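Two entries, shown back to back:
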Amino acid sequence: MDRTDPEGAIAAAAKRCSNWGRWGADDVLGTLNHLDEAKRREGAALVRRGASFSLAQRFDANGPQKGWRRRTNPVHTMLDTGTDAERGTQGFPHGIGGADDVISMPLQASTQWDGLGHIFDHGVAYNGRRAGDVVTSEGDRITGIETTAGLIAGRGVLLDVGRVFGAGQKGGAEGELPDGFAITPDHLEATIAAHGDTARVGRGDLLLVRTGRLTRARREGWGDYAGGDSAGLSFSTVDWLHGTEIAGVATDTWGVEVRPNEFDNAFQPLHQVAIPHIGLFLGEMWDLDALADDCVADGVHEFWLTAAPLPVTGAVGAPVAPIAVK
């Protein structure tokens, strides 16, 4: 890659990896088209022990956000409380009382999916649509996250790149990659080889990549976790992501791809190809630690994964509470 030419690299990758028109001019699902009923049956058959793992960070005021692009942590407010019930101020008959609450938050404040209307390339959205025709002040009117409702469930695969490569890297640690570590296709393939056959990656899979960045944030504090430097996928993985025909990829980092980005004067170049051209769903800030420990313990890196985003009509990204079951 020529560090000085992000425009050229992005344009070339977009041409090589475009899925525009692959599933028709009206397609709104992108790579979720790879995740069919047969793939869900394959994923469901992986449940043997019944052990389940939440892959979501908590949604609360102590979360990772520091105000970048006006993103804040969730604000949770009670509308009715036990105190109201005790004092009989709720007005319900025969002694019944209750509690009610509301939350205010950016939809990408914590564990979430990026929708296909989240990123554009030179004013163009997924499937060659004009960005202004897709996302307006009313939200994403074509590829809103609600179009994925009920679809993101199938075979999940965890590649623990942090555990395989972390200890051998300058600035890294056992199970943790250093900031700025660019995960290449060679790293992904070597991790698959290290994990064994259950880590094979193919069509319709939901791929999880652990870097160890969240582990460090838990130990040292949030710092710049939400927007700062981090290990992540190299731009060079774009052809691998396209060629494997995965349905989605999620990581334990804020931005999926390596930061600082690999080009001079570039911002999230992998996003710029993956979302508007491949139509690939990207998951961010997933908690993969407990699942990773279990994968090491039983030697199995595949599982049933359900990860439906909150179907907010017109949203370009949404919170998700993924659950992996082995």
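entry 2 starts here
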Amino acid sequence: MSRLAVPKTYKLFIGGKFPRSESGRTYEIVTAKGAFLANASKASRKDARDAVKAARTAVAGWSGATAYNRGQVLYRIAELLEGRRAQFVDEIQRAEGVSANAAEKQVDEAIDRWVWYAGWTDKYAQVAGNANPVAGPFFNLSVPEPTGVVAMVAPQESSLLGLVSVVAPALVTGNSVVVVASEQFPLSAITLAEVLATSDVPGGVVNVLTGSPAEIAPWLASHSDVNALDLAGAQQLDWVDLQIEAADTLKRVLPPEPDVWPSLDRITAFTETKTVWHTKSMI
């Protein structure tokens, strides 16, 4: 006797939980050949606000963790990604219509990239910070600190690798993230969210919205509680207007990038430099 398949509805990931969009909207995700894959939630302005609120609440705990602890948490995510490798490969192969080898390559590169960033948690401060020469009996130290809440538009042509390439470096320094996933290929983003939910990442540190970047990005760009904006995947949007909206609240903005490569610059892009003076002991 044949059975009916159970179509899956992928939900948003906000504050460590998986709510449906408050609007009740969903949209169909199809394979490269047009066959139905699943339903995904279509995030609204209210969902974006909820995600920012969750991210703001999570900043203090995540940024206050030791660099070593953040590194261990990020390494754990890589372990869980490895455990779900077959699922990611299957999702990417069906959604993007690529070969098994191409899907495997994307997943392996995403995992390796996550590990690479995890290794920087207790090292970037030594590279990006410094001791400054000053006149007088003082120590003068410059140290990088996290910006806060970073809103992102993930690269739209990649199911997993593009998402990892923007989210991982922001987490290294203690930022929290609200990311708008690829509209066409969101399945890997929600599967990654399921990985995060079962890892040691505190709820709210990463929040994943699915749906239309054109609809959601303006609300994030203008939100007064968002500290920075990464427009890596916003090539097809009116991203100059997004920059203008972000400028009203003095956000730091990274413009669209055709390819997002791993780099120290991506880690330090969303940090602020704090300079501290301290009197030298005269003993």
